[in-house]
Design brief:
The chain has no helices and eleven strands. It is mainly beta. Strand 5 and strand 6 form a beta hairpin. About 30% of the residues are buried.
Length: about 120
């Protein structure tokens, strides 16, 4: 099994920046992708970005050009640099990872970290 712990959330003013980090522990050698999602009150969970062990990245349309994902599978960490934040970015941000467990794909989720964008 894999455990994910997020950090870096908090309160930021509109137009500001914030960097989230996620550290994975446990059976991390099975992981091949790590990423970020968010969920605002009353809304569905939204895909933000993913980073793979082949150094490929992908972004959700709402954050392209503003958010940057980076990671290091050797250190089992993934980060999300968020720039030009707006109140619409207020949500709980979740770290996610995918790997193989008993040869089958398995998803793992962190507990989430709150990001609030407000003046």
């Amino acid at each position: 099994q894999v455990q994910l712990v997020e950090s870096g959330g908090g309160l930021v003013e509109p137009g500001g920046s914030l960097k989230l980090s996620c550290a994975a522990s446990g059976s991390t050698s099975s992981l091949y992708a790590m990423g970020w999602y968010r969920q605002a009150p009353g809304k569905k969970r939204e895909f933000l970005a993913t980073f793979t062990n082949r150094d490929t990245t992908d972004y959700g349309d709402s954050v392209k050009g503003r958010f940057t994902i980076s990671g290091d599978f050797a250190k089992n960490t993934v980060h999300l640099q968020m720039n030009n934040l707006s109140p619409e970015d207020t949500a709980v941000y979740y770290c996610a990872a995918e790997g193989l467990f008993n040869s089958n794909p398995k998803e793992y989720w962190g507990q989430g970290t709150q990001v609030t964008v407000s003046s």
